[in-house]
Amino acid sequence: MIAVTGEPTIGDVFGEMIRDAYAVATGIGPRPLAGGRLPRPVIEIIERDDGLVNGAPAGHYLDPPEAWQPYDHRAVERVRGHALDVGVGAGRIALHLQQRGVPVTGLDTSVGALRVCRHRGVRDLVHGTIDQHVADGRRYDTFLLLGNNLGLIEGRERAAGFLAALAALARPGAQVIAHGTDPYGTTDPVQVSYHERNRRRGRLGGQLRLRLRYRLLGTEWFDYLVCTADELAELVQGSSWRLVDVDDRDHPYYLATLQLA
Amino acid sequence: MIAVTGEPTIGDVFGEMIRDAYAVATGIGPRPLAGGRLPRPVIEIIERDDGLVNGAPAGHYLDPPEAWQPYDHRAVERVRGHALDVGVGAGRIALHLQQRGVPVTGLDTSVGALRVCRHRGVRDLVHGTIDQHVADGRRYDTFLLLGNNLGLIEGRERAAGFLAALAALARPGAQVIAHGTDPYGTTDPVQVSYHERNRRRGRLGGQLRLRLRYRLLGTEWFDYLVCTADELAELVQGSSWRLVDVDDRDHPYYLATLQLA
């Protein structure tokens, strides 16, 4: 075995991070401290396979509606019937829908995130991936992929399977509301050369290969797609879904609506 | 060559980070953006050799005196004669002394940090380590190791050489004002087991092995010491310096004063 200095242990990165962000926000549970006394802000650390690393404060996962971006508000306005919040995170969207009387189920692969959701009052929670959830026999009218979670479609290889799993979970007439970002409006050479490197390898330009880290834990490396609405339209071709609307009022961010064909 | 996914390029991590933090704080120079539009906070990413990673907002390097911790104010009150600010960073301490008419020189190994210092108005700046600076023939009355920079003493192996270099730069009667932190007042198992692992390897408990990362860049791995005042007293034994005062009014943080024997 080759021990690489400073490598993380594989674990529930997102859950530990959300637990700590919740503790900082509410005082519930032990808070991470700097130097044993000053509170330490909870930072999500995202590594990319070209060596890029970014840190982002994690508090936004707990933001109340007043702090949301405008597209989040427009996304929840589009919900009809029973919603599945895919990647429910700390539950900000699910809680809001539930409070408005909308039937909503939160799905996440992070046990720690689901624990925080439950503590915050989200009533209907499922642990697992969309593929695993198909066997549970439950069906939905709206699938929410918010917080940039259109990225879960990963890329060309995964797209068909991802869209098929959503279709298998869908009631007749179901829709997907997905938040995406156009990655190509930048001149930052770090980003432009990453997009070119991806294309040379036969990947979509914004097909990010990432891992998350928090304290001692890391995820495995995974693909997360940042794509234009045009690229999404191509990925949707041949699936059971049709891209019926793109709301890009907050460009480069957009909301894509897919409708079961 | 083994390509390890996501490894950084060795470079001036601190300088790039300080340049961006300065751009965010002042609007001078291009600012890093999230998703091409929203400003991204500048986060310092610190990896430890056990796999621990921490992110901390970098803005504090630019803090004006009103935002400083109390021990920083007490440290600058102790300055006499010509001061060398060891690890001048973005120049917050040097600028303050200079504005009060105190002769001060800023030393740093980061070219990018020195560039920001110069832009902010710090007049006397030197690029290099304390060892390299000895040959320049300049001598000082006060050495400042603030912002936890007592850590630059690294551990048992480096301490004698570090203290000797400071002595070689010293005028008769010179002093060192160093900011340290007692690392042992925690029950966090992540920290406690790291201290134990260090001791099993013959290292001081708080002898951190770290590297910094920012965007595509990383430093080499280096030692940075977090030690108690008692441990410092042992390291100083046999050097040209005497530990003459420990101000621990802000425990676990302290200011250690060394006097040339």
From TrEMBL, chains A, B:
Molecular functions (GO terms): methyltransferase activity
Superkingdom classification of source: Bacteria
One protein family per Pfam: Methyltransf_25
Keyword annotations from UniProtKB, A to Z: Methyltransferase, Transferase
The name this protein goes by in its record: Methyltransferase domain-containing protein
InterPro entries per UniProt: Methyltransf_25 (IPR041698), SAM-dependent_MTases_sf (IPR029063)
GO biological process, one term: methylation
Species whose genome carries this gene: Micromonospora narathiwatensis
Residues in Methyltransferase domain copies: 84-173
Transmembrane segments: none
